[in-house]
C-alpha cells in the first residue's frame, strides 16, 4: 500500500532521515520505535506531506507522492493523528468529529451517520458529545483525536505517540481502541515511545536510530531482541550491556 | 503448499522493497560493530547511504569461508556474545572451523523459515516425519526438527541410527515423510533391496533430502527403490542451515526465500556478477540475521538463477539443481571432499609416495571409488601381511575422516602420472 525508498529529510541544513526505506501493507499495523529525536515523527510528517524538503521515493497505492500537497494526501486517504492530539479545545466533541470529515465534503446527514458509527466504536465520545474538547482528560482527548481521524475515512492512519502524556489507565484504553481498529482490518503506521505497547498490537516494526532504520521484523521476533529490550522496553534490562 | 500464502506469493516489487529495507538495516547495524566492514567502508570511502538499490550490493566484498576462518571465532558477530543463544562450530574435514552464532530472534526466524521450506516440499501437520541427519550437519537436523514441529508434524529425530534401524522405524511408526541426506537415502535404498522390502509396506509419501548434492542418477535410484518422489531443500551451515530454500510441487528449481536472502550468481574466476540464467557460483546475503549476518558469501555451489514467476504462484527466485562445486571437490554417493584430503591421509603412511590416482565408476546407481596408491619398493618386498594392513588402514582412515568408502590398490609409483593433476589423476567414468 505504502512504499518508501531511500527517504532523506532535512530541517534546513540538518539531515533528519537517512535512506529510510519502509512499507506498510493493507490491513497491517506497523510500529516505528526509537529514541527521542531518532526521526520517527519526521517519517510520519513526510508521509502526510507536512515536510516536503525530502528526496527519495514514496508511493501510496501506486501513486507517486513526490509532488503531493498535504491536503491532497488527505484526499488519498492518508490521515495523520498528530502528537499532542491537537484537538480544537473550544469546540464540542461533536464539532471536533464533524471537522474530521471536512476533507470528504460530504452532506451533513452522511457526516451524522458517520459520527454515530464512531460513537458505536468509541462510546465514551457519545457520552461527552456536547462537552468542549479542552475539558476532556488527556486520554479522552486522544480518543477524540483518533475518532476525528476516523471521520476522514482513512486508507492509512498515521498515529503519532498516542500514549504520550497519558495515565497508564488511559494508555490501556487507547491501545484497546487500536486493537479494535486492527480487528476491523484498518491500516495503521504508529509511532510510539511505549515500545512494549506498540509491539503488542503491531504486526511488524521498524527500529530507527539517528535517522536510519537499523532493524525490521515481525513483532514476535523483535520482542526477543536484547537491544530493543534494553533500549526501549524499560526497566530490568539495563544490566544487559552495562 | 504454502505456510503463509500472502507472503510467499508477494510480487517482485514487494520482494525487492523488503530486500532493500533489510539490506539497508543490516548495513546500518553492522557498520558500527564489525571491524571488517568498518575498515572496508573506510578504505573504499563508501557509506551505508551509497546503498539505495539491490544492485549496490556489488559494492560489498565477496566473503569466503577463509575470511570467516580469519575472523574466527567471534570476529564477524554483530551482537555481543551475551545476546547469542546458540554457538555452532561448523566443521569440514581438514579445515578450520567457522563459528556461527544465533540470537533468540534468529532461532525464531530460522524455525519459521524452515517450516516454510518444509511446507513447500509438502510436509504438513498430519505427517509423521522422520529426521535422519548425522555427521557434520547435525545443526541442520535441529533446524529441520524445529521447522517440522512448528508445522505441527509428529517428529521422530533419528540422528545417529543406522539404515537398518531407520527402515524398521519407517515401517513400525508409519512414517509419512523422511527428511535425510542423499547419502543416507542411498544407504536406505540398499537396505530396502537387500531385505527385499516392498515399498508398499511403508507409509512413506515422499523423501526430502538436503545437506549434500543429489545427482540425477542417485535421485532416480532412490525414487525407483521407494517408488515415491524425492524433493530437495537447500541451505548451508554458515547461513542458517536448510531454511534457505526448497523445491515446490512443480519441481522446477529450488525457491530461495528472497525476503531473507539475496541470491546472486557470479563468475567464480572473476567475481563479476552474471545475468539471470547464466551459470556460475551462487552468492548469498543474509538480510534478516542478527547474530551472524553474512554478506555476499560465496557458497561454492554452481547453479543459475531464475527470477520469473513459478507456476506454483511464488515469485521468489529459483536456483537450478546444484550439481557442481567451484573447487576440485569430488562427490561420492552424496558425500563431498577434496582430493587433497586424500593426499593428506596418504602422507601419514610410511611407504606411500605422493603418487595417487582416483578412479570413480558407477554401478547399480551407486558410486564406487578406487584409489591407486603409489608405494615404495620396500613395501613390495616386505611381508604381504604388511601390505594388506596398510591397505586396510588407509581405507579405514578415509572412511573415518571423509565418510566415503574406497577400495585401495597399492601400485608402483611410476605407473601413476606425476605431478598430480585433476585431468590425469582423477578418472571419473560416471
Describe the structure.
The complex is a heterodimer of chains A (242) and B (430). Chain A has 242 residues and is α/β, with parallel strands linked by helices. Chain A contains ten helices and ten strands. Chain A has a single domain (2-232), classed as P-loop containing nucleotide triphosphate hydrolases (Rossmann fold, 3-Layer(aba) Sandwich), CATH 3.40.50.300. Chain A has helices at residues 40-47, 70-76, 93-100, 108-121, 123-127, 138-151, 168-183, 195-201, 219-222, 226-232; strands spanning 2-11, 14-24, 29-34, 54-60, 63-64, 78-81, 156-160, 188-191, 204-209, 212-218. In chain A, strand 9 (204-209) and strand 10 form a beta hairpin. In chain A, helix 3 (93-100) runs parallel beside helix 6 (138-151). Chain B has helices at 5-8, 12-33, 35-44, 65-70, 104-120, 138-151, 163-172, 182-194, 216-226, 339-346, 377-381, 384-402, 422-425; strands spanning 84-90, 98-103, 128-132, 154-157, 177-180, 206-209, 229-236, 241-247, 254-256, 261-266, 280-286, 297-303, 305-306, 318-319, 324-325, 330-332, 335-337, 352-363, 366-375, 407-411, 426-428. In chain B, strands 4-3-5-6-7-8-9-14-13 form a nine-stranded mixed sheet, sandwiched between helices. Chain B has a four-stranded antiparallel sheet with strand order 10-11-12-15, with no helix packed on it. Chain B has a four-stranded mixed sheet with strand order 20-19-18-21. The longest helix of chain B is centred in the first third of the chain and has 22 residues, at 12-33. Chain B folds into two domains: 5-325, 3-Layer(aba) Sandwich (Rossmann fold); 330-428, GMP Synthetase, Chain A, domain 3. Chain B has 430 residues and is an alpha/beta fold. In chain B, 33% of the residues lie in helices and 26% in strands. Chains A and B meet through strand 1, strand 2, strand 10 and helix 9 of A and helix 2 and helix 5 of B.
